[in-house]
Amino acid sequence: MSRTLCGTLFALALLSACAPIPSHMPTNVSIGRGLPASPAPAGNAEAPRILAVRFNTLSVARPATWSGTVVTTTNVASVELRTNQFSLNLPRTAYGVFRFRVHVYDLPAEFLRRYSLRVIARNPAGDAVEEDVPFTIR
After folding, report:
1. Which residues share a beta bridge with 79?
2. Quick count: other Cβ atoms within 10 Å of Cβ 18?
3. 110, 133, 136, 127: which is closest to 29 by C-alpha?
């Protein structure tokens, strides 16, 4: 591998670690259990909306189980949880309801830090809406 390519890859790795962390919690995000809201009906051509998001925790200490529910309008085709280090596609359990459960085991030291967790919902046309949430793996 050439020095230029190595230098470029190193610079990209450093920049990916510098993603801004949101300083506030969105009003539609909560911590706890249960279904946070009911899905709202919407046509396929309408813009997607994230109505509520509930996580069991936003500060994961390993080993642990991290879970959550995202409630959207019924026209949402996919929901993704994304950081600069990982991405999860949430399975749909009902129209407008997406749930996940992940077992977090031992991770390399570079994964143990604060993140900006992006909750992204897309309708069938590809239109997206996003909420940014502060998240920590420790």
Report:
1. 90, 121
2. 8
3. 133
Handedness of CA 90, 48, 50, 118 (dihedral sign): positive
Query: pTM for the whole thing?
Result: 0.82
* 3-state secondary structure labels for all residues of 7-76: HHHHHHHHHHCCCCCCCCCCCCEEECCCCCCCCECCCCCCCCCEEEEEECCCEECCCEEEEEEEEEECCC
Query: For 42-99, what is each residue's pLDDT tens digit?
Result: 998 899 999 999 999 999 998 999 999 999 999 999 999 999 888 999 999 999 999 9
At 80 the pLDDT is 98
- The Cβ of residue 79 has, within 10 Å, a number of other Cβ atoms equal to 26
CATH superfamily, domain 3-137, is Immunoglobulins (2.60.40.10)
Strand 92-94 with 97-104, pairing: antiparallel
- Beta strands 50-55 and 64-72, pairing class: antiparallel
Tokens of 101: 């459960």
CB 117 within 8 A of CB 87: no
